[in-house]
Amino acid sequence: MSNTANLKDVAERAGVSISTVSRALNGKSYVNEETRRRVQEAVQETNYRPNALAKSLKMGRTNTICLMVPAIENLMFPPIVRGVEDTARKSGFTVVLCNTDEDEAVEKAYIEKMKTHWIDGFVVCSAYGSASHILALRDEGFPLVLVNRYQEADVGRFDIVSVDNFRAAYDATCYLARTGRRRIALAHGREELYLYQERYRGYCAALKDSGLPYDEELVLRELDGIDSFYQLTRDAMALPQPPDAIFASSDPKAFVIMHALHDLGLRIPQDVSVLGFDNVPMASMVEPPLSTIAQPFYAMGCVAARSLLRQIFYKDKNGTLPAAVHNVMEVDLIVRRSTK
Amino acid sequence: MSNTANLKDVAERAGVSISTVSRALNGKSYVNEETRRRVQEAVQETNYRPNALAKSLKMGRTNTICLMVPAIENLMFPPIVRGVEDTARKSGFTVVLCNTDEDEAVEKAYIEKMKTHWIDGFVVCSAYGSASHILALRDEGFPLVLVNRYQEADVGRFDIVSVDNFRAAYDATCYLARTGRRRIALAHGREELYLYQERYRGYCAALKDSGLPYDEELVLRELDGIDSFYQLTRDAMALPQPPDAIFASSDPKAFVIMHALHDLGLRIPQDVSVLGFDNVPMASMVEPPLSTIAQPFYAMGCVAARSLLRQIFYKDKNGTLPAAVHNVMEVDLIVRRSTK
DNA sequence: ATGAAAGCGCTAACAG
DNA sequence: CTGTTAGCGCTTTCAT
After folding, report:
1. Residue of B nearest to A282 (CA)
2. What is the set of domains in chain B, with CATH numbers?
């Protein structure tokens, strides 16, 4: 560790007191210009590096935030994580990454450990709706922002960043109808998740407004894991009146569906259109390139981090958390070649 | 923050001294059984939570490690990151994620910040070969492990986890030759990277041992970004004697190549086999599913973390770093449907 | 077996 | 404008 010069060393070297060095370095209080120069020199000469631990212990702030995701391997998270980190870094914050698999025990253990480390706040991309141990964080005074997964009741009570899932699914379904599709299936996601409920509602509403009948047989419900959509797709295509479009509630589902369709010898989009949701990077690389609803993941990560930092600074100043805000991000319909 | 009980509070409550509480909690020194129980009770009652900052300041250890990757969006990193984190967590360590884009300034800034935070060690998945500011870390006494990117000269001097790239590419090329392919092209990666040089060498050696001529026209060299392989593939297929197989030095390149082939109206693998390298999760989902050399990314992350922890513990005990070890991981040829 | 006290490195009153 | 001093919460000799 070679270098362990501390304020005292610098002070001696510069021939001033410790507190003068501290002041000179933090630039808060005024310090004689000449003195400041001597201090700067001493800093160079001693190869001084501040000790963040000591500072944090004193200040009760670590400039570190905790980012919880279910699993970084899930394609939607890397860009979010990147957005959070880039933004945090620009403000001098460091981010601790926590994969939880949405396992409550893991989440709780992480939260406990993060408190122990005096982390400044949490960005949580997990938690079906409101897991109480997550939401409790805010009551305990911790800055907290929820990304994408939340419940209706949480709006206004917590900082949230999300898209308008109802609206996005509504627009997507209308688009499919506009292209002449009449039997539009929905690959529904895990129904406990509020965001999938919303997308389902959007789908239903769009069907209605497009004058299309709702057909329960056309809503493919995930069994265990998204691979189940392989068989669900085959089953659907075996219907007397098979779908002529499938709206997948996430891109990975769309990939599985395209696979099933391909194995069935069906052409996309001639025989059936496939529309995804998310626009993960791979969406443009599959064959045919997948039309999809793009969520601005990277931007969402940035906004989440900024939202958290805002809370942190506000709390620093006022000792209390600011009012919650709901950041609703815009989605984008990206038409590629899996729809016509 | 509600709860800020500290050792003193617990001590008072239990009617013992601070040091006794500390001892009782750390279980190092012996403490009267009865006393220990009283302390435990007091801990419950006061809702005590240790302050990791204070402990770290005292101990010079933070139980936190720094994980540097070029970009988490790159498909190979999420599983590595996950492996590192899972392993670290099991040992009570926390991981700070740093995306650097391999930008030297960013790397340096991060390193500086991490030192400031008294991080216990670094896992670096970046740095073309030996970036001196990274390698210097070990000389400064920091536990360090390099994942996948290193130079020949680094072996034995640093902890490294990697695969045998020469061997993997050799085997892959031989496999292609065994399936009857005679014009095997290589989609070469950025040539400054040692691992791509190795794969190139393996390719050449396999050609030779398979009695196939080396043809410079068949080595596709990346121009700027992997998208350049779209045109490179078209060019190659326009050759008088076009390739009947393309060995891509990474899966993403293979995806681009498959795309180009598809647009050319060529069939995979009937007209040309495509073999990838990495086995990113998407490899099995494209059409046709991609045959590829699987790197055990998750396991590599686990091994990297374990390697780092080993260094950290060793250093704790002996005050010095242990001898460097090179962890060479096994790759796996996964035959799917893009080769025959 | 337990307590007292020093000190990790830093910031922020408080004095001057 | 600068120095002195008191902690932040914890571990660890050194006594007892």
Report:
1. B282
2. 7-50 (1.10.260.40), 59-162+298-330 (3.40.50.2300), 165-295 (3.40.50.2300)
